[in-house]
Design goal:
It is a single chain. This protein has 131 residues and is mostly beta strands. Helix content is 4%, strand content 36%. The strands form three sheets. Strands 8-9-3-4-7-10 form a six-stranded antiparallel sheet, with no helix packed on it. The longest helix is centred in the N-terminal third of the chain and has 5 residues.
Length: 131
């Protein structure tokens, strides 16, 4: 992600998330204090950058080190795509500020579900009857 002359690179199997707005109003219309939202175990946000994935060791069956790409790094890709809405464990996320904007760095293993396509606020509250 580039801002001006600075570039923010996400490394390894981490995901950069722009946190969603804290919902301080319940469905009934009651406003909750800020401390209540911080006690939730799960948080959501939009994915704005992803790392290359989990690094893999070089192949052992390759016995020709002079070949081009022999030492090129290989990564196990992740299922996350840019623009996905991710629900993740709040305690696993690390908050950073880049160019005066707040982001969360989330390890891939802390992501619970991804919502792809459609409105990002359309996170389902319950599972459908047919799976």
């Amino acid at each position: 992600m580039k801002r001006g002359n600075q570039e923010l690179l996400v490394v390894g199997d981490r995901v950069l998330v722009e946190p969603g707005r804290d919902e301080r109003k319940t469905k009934v219309g009651l406003y909750l204090p800020a401390g209540v939202a911080a006690k939730e175990d799960v948080q959501g946000g939009s994915v704005v950058a992803i790392g290359p994935g989990q690094p893999l060791p070089p192949p052992h069956e390759e016995h020709e080190p002079w070949k081009q790409g022999y030492r090129a790094p290989r990564y196990l890709p992740m299922q996350v795509h840019l623009g996905d809405y991710a629900l993740f464990f709040r305690k696993a996320a690390i908050e950073i500020t880049f160019d005066d904007e707040r982001y969360l760095v989330v390890p891939y293993g802390a992501i619970l579900v991804l919502v792809r396509g459609g409105d990002e606020r359309a996170v389902p509250d319950e599972l459908p009857d047919e799976l």
